[in-house]
Sequence to fold (456 residues):
Amino acid sequence: MKPLLLWSDVLVFLLVISLVLFFYRLRRDPQTRERWGQVFSSRLGMVTFTVILTYVGIALLDSLHFRRALDTAQGGASQEVFYDNKVTSVLDLVLGGMGDRFERTYSAPFALKSFEKQNMKDEEGRAIRDFPLLEHAGRHLADPADRWPDVLAKTVTALLWGLLLGSIWIAPQWWWLRGSANPWYASWGVQLVVICLGTWAVVVSRYYHILGTDLGGTDVLYQSLKGVRTGVLLGTLSTLIMLPIAVTLGVMAGYFKGWVDDLVQYLYTTLSSIPGILLIAASVLLFQVYIDLNPDFFSIGMEKADARFIALCFILGVTSWSTLCRLIRAETLKISQLGYVQAAHAFGVSHSRILGRHILPNVVHIILITFVLDFSALVLAEAVLSYIGVGIDPSMGSWGNMINGARSELSRQPPVWWTLTGAFFFMFALVLAANLFSDLVRDAFDPRSSGRRSEA
Fold:
């Protein structure tokens, strides 16, 4: 086994370290800690944050990559070890080889036979067209009629194991947080549901394809889970790339005014006048041409797909800063006219100190609100870009690629609906949790919404 570190993996680990440092500093700021405590004092905040952490955990497991060593030919004189070009992650190990159980083509959820007829021979040797049995799903059954009782039995067994594992996981948390005023029981309920569903999926998928298979015979549930990393990283990294540009230009335009303000307004007005989809598509295609002209930069196909993924995050971040820049510019214009800022100017305080002590702390609420709102918007943007063919590389798991492939599948008769359903469900859960959590963050950090609540 040979560990493989992709550039996107490095960014994931840097992001996790940044989050740990953020929560460490949070404990030292009583005012910020109080506002985040307001977010987590509600059951909805606990539930949505736990769902988001579940997606982040799946993304982390899928970011630990390695390549398996190939079997050495017997009797070979060479002792050199060769590694498989296929990249495997820890998530693949947790799923128990779900992605290695291929069928020939489409199969419906929990089906025992293929969804398409194929040329076969009957018991008498005559050529017929019929639905062949699947190569993996249901092979343990002696009688196909026992399918649903078998599914029920395995479901009960898996849920019992899930309850046991969930209890072991939650018991230390209950012991540590039993005196807390926050509604941790809501988070524990979500954790228990996630563990039970995960255990059920791992156990049952060994015998059936829970969400069926696609055209290439790949398990749809496996594809949906592999798309989690792409969705989480794209939404997070693109937003983190956008924030420094928007904050820097917005603060400079609102504080210095004059020609600086005119220049920044010209930049984001020009950028906003260009159709976003066309600009992103042109940038992605230019980078794709660069990759195709320099194949020696990448040793395996996964590295090429990862480079395109990082480029897409960068392009989405660079092209989506204008809205936040406008908001921060307007807020900075208002703050710079307040009395304490004018007093700081009168006492000769430097511009850098005024920006760091008086301006930036008062626009943090806008940054936080925009971060959580843009996260879900960028997850959906990836699906749109993949739908038109300029998104994530097809070799990388992506909900957008699944939706793109489902275009022709829905026009079949009967339609192949499970590919779109799998992508939709996982995307819907992440975006809904992010949007609901963003509402709570806005209510806690936006002074105007706090004022409206106090008046009510």
Summary: The beta strands are 2-4, 65-69, 83-89, 118-121, 127-130. Residues 305 and 400 are 15 Å apart (CA to CA).
